[in-house]
Amino acid sequence: MTELFHYRQDREAYSAARVKALQALLIKKGVITDKTVDTVLDFFETKMGPFNGAKIVARAWVDPAFKERLLADTPAAIAELDLPEGMAGAEGEHMRAVANASDVHNLIICTLCSCYPWPVLGLPPYWYKDPTFRSRAAREPRAVLKEFGLPIPDGIEIKVWDSSAQIRWFVIPERPAGSEGMSEAELEAFVTPEAMMGVAVAKAA
Predict the structure, then answer these.
(1) Is residue 8 assigned to a domain?
(2) Rounded Cα gap, residues 114 and 124, in angstroms
(3) What is the pLDDT of residue 2?
């Protein structure tokens, strides 16, 4: 990813300082309390995140009928699973799934800003919101994926899906070779946020 983006080396500390200053100002003005941020972070660490997406993908891998329902009506299929309440809210409105196959690879971007299905992928990474990624991935997805360490052969079609407030996409990656006979719970370990975004593939250990 070094060719894609050029961040200041102290970006983590710089961003943390800005967030802390903004948090202190909002607390001072009475907009939030000192526990508000902790509550929100706990929500996305324990209830809404890529662990939900891993459960959805693993079920799709072992249950072809569920996969068909997931592709046809993603919210309805997700509602079948024992997942936390609120999957359809908190940036999860209007989620849609697309599936990778031997002849097609899917990539998720957001050209407008950073729309992202938080309930299944967690919080978006730095590079997803970067204007360079958003513009280049739309124009030259094959080159961008190669820079991510994922060269896609010319014979495989790349489809780019643009998330928005109306539709928030995520990818069902192909089930990794060597995972035959594994349980649904074991398969969840192979599902990463990057694979569900299309910048990586699921790999068995």
Answers:
(1) no
(2) 8
(3) 44
Say whether 183 is catalytic.
Answer: no
In the structure encoding, which two tokens stand for residue 8, read together? 């200041």
- The tally of domains found in the chain comes to 1
DSSP H or E run through 187 = helix 184-188
In a domain, 21, yes or no: no
113 counts as catalytic: yes
* Axis-axis angle for helices 50-62, 64-72 (nearest 10): 120
User: What is the span of the domain harbouring residue 174?
Assistant: 47-197
Average pLDDT, integer, range 90-114: 87
pTM for the whole structure: 0.81
Whether 110 has a binding-site annotation, put simply, is yes
CATH assignment at residue 86: 3.90.330.10
164 appears as a binding residue in the annotation: no
- Find the catalytic residue in 113, 135, 164, 183: 113
Q: Is 183 annotated as a binding residue?
A: no
For residue 155, pLDDT beyond 90: yes
Respond yes or no: is residue 135 known to be catalytic: no
Q: Which of 15, 102, 114, 135 is catalytic?
A: 114
Are 115 and 90 a contacting pair, CB within 8 Å? no
